[in-house]
Amino acid sequence: MHLLYNFSTFLASKLILLSPLFSPKMGLFVKGRKSVVNTLKSTLKKGDKTIWFHCASLGEYEQGVPIIKKTKEEFPDHKIIVSFFSPSGFEVKKNDKLADCTVYLPLDTPKNAKNFINLLQPSVAIFIKYEFWPNYLFELKKKSIPTILVSGLFRKDQVFFKFYGGFMRRTLNSFSHFFVQDQLSKSLLKQLKNSQVTVSGDTRFDRVSDQLSMNNKLDFIALFKQDLFCLVCGSTWPKDESILINYINNFSNNTKFIIAPHDVNNLRIESLKKKLKVKTVLYSEREKYRISDYQVLIIDTVGLLTKVYSYADVAYIGGGIGMGANGLHNILEAATFGVPIIIGENYTNFPEAKKLKELNGLFSVATPQEFIDIFNQLKTDASFCEKTGLISKNFIFNNRGATDIILNYLQQLQI
After folding, report:
1. Contact between 245 and 372 (Cβ < 8 Å)
2. CA-closest candidate to residue 33, choices 72, 91, 79, 118
3. How confident is the model at residue 18 (pLDDT cuts 50, 70, 90)?
């Protein structure tokens, strides 16, 4: 199976060279990997000690930020190396100063894995939530480099727990320790004889909690909102917007709407704007018009949403509507501000959404009418809205602490 995996990876590496012809995003994927070795060599000197964090994309990076920050404080003599698999993470964070060096992860071939790890010589490797690259993990184990998974989340339907998943189960044996989000994940790993498992929770709670101590002021949002009730729709897809647009176009008196689509390319933004029959302005146009006169503000850029949530009275979080949903986006960024949450109906793979729904701090909708019913209740019943938001806020407060558990383990490694 390992030989088949390596052959498939080799074949993919050749086919990927053609992908920029069809996708600009894949162009970044290919081009960015060409400079990895030179970037690392220009950053690292002989004798440098390093700690390596790997994340799939932007969401996993944000999950890792609290650990990266505390690791830098605890181990100031180590250089922090962050790798991404996806362009959507790397392109946003490539110039971030939190890490000493940020690079793409070369494709998972035996040669790439050996060269990359020989260049880094990490004291410890930290993988965030997902990402199980066999050749990298096997090489780390071969070199006896401590390797941990943080904020891990396992489900029965994953390949590790299938009768044909033997090869991928081997990759799990490369980890020195698993820090997982819930008891189910621990139980599943124990079934596979992985005993070095700690239920630490999700580091995202620490991440979003820290947001409250930051400056979240956005003058243009305050100018747009005025004193009106405001719904912030974060990381939406067209299926999400099909739930929202009927209300916005027909029943939205004395309400402001901020929509931050997951994809902000020009065609996508124009398509959304055409569907809206009320006065709509783009973030990129905010200085051309008096935005207080508009009812809908579309955020056609990235990086602002976390702060925008601080102005919400209610938040709709995208990614969970319809069959084949894209995957629910981060509900915790809004919840930390004490905001009631509305999502789509597909959230069963997201334990934080399941739990917050059980606590009545979150509501799931599948149709435009269901959205109208719950949103109107939140809008017209101030006591109900406030109580629901408080549940969200307390949910964040009561689930902090994963970062400290993980850092305590790193301290014991004496790296």
Report:
1. no
2. 91
3. low
Inform me whether the pLDDT recorded for 29 exceeds 80.
no
Copy the structure tokens of residue 4. 């088949």
Residue type, 119: L
Sheet holding 296-298, edge to edge: 280-282, 296-298, 255-261, 229-236, 314-317, 341-343, 362-364
Mean local confidence (pLDDT), 48-54: 97
Output the CA angle 219-221-224, nearest 5 degrees: 110
SS (HEC) of the chain: CHHHHHHHHHHHHHHHHHHHHCCHHHHHHHHHHCCHHHHHHHHCCCCCEEEEEEECCHHHHHHHHHHHHHHHHHCCCEEEEEEECCHHHHHHHCCCCCCCEEEECCCCCHHHHHHHHHHHCEEEEEEECCCCCHHHHHHHHHCCCCEEEEEECCCCCCHHHCCCCHHHHHHHCCCCEEEECCHHHHHHHHHCCCCCEEECCCCHHHHHHHHHHCCCCCHHHHHHHCCCEEEEEEEECHHHHHHHHHHHHHCCCCEEEEEEECCCCHHHHHHHHHHCCCCEEEHHHCCCCCHHHCCEEECCCCCCHHHHHHHCCEEEECCCCCCCCCCCCCCHHHHCCCCCEEECCCCCCCHHHHHHHHCCCEEECCCHHHHHHHHHHHHHCHHHHHHHHHHHHHHHHCCCCHHHHHHHHHHHHCC
Q: Tell me the pTM.
A: 0.87
Q: Quick one: average pLDDT of 7-18?
A: 71
Q: 156 in the Ramachandran plot: left (φ > 0), alpha (ψ -120 to 50) or beta?
A: alpha
Is the confidence at residue 336, as pLDDT, over 70?
A: yes
User: Using one digit for the tens of pLDDT, what is the confidence trace for 204-246?
Assistant: 999 999 999 999 999 999 999 999 999 999 999 999 999 999 9
Mean pLDDT, rounded, for 390-410: 97
Q: Which residues lie below 8 Å from residue 191, measured CB to CB, with a gap of 6+?
A: 161
- Provide the pLDDT for residue 198: 98
Confidence of residue 20 (pLDDT cuts 50, 70, 90): low
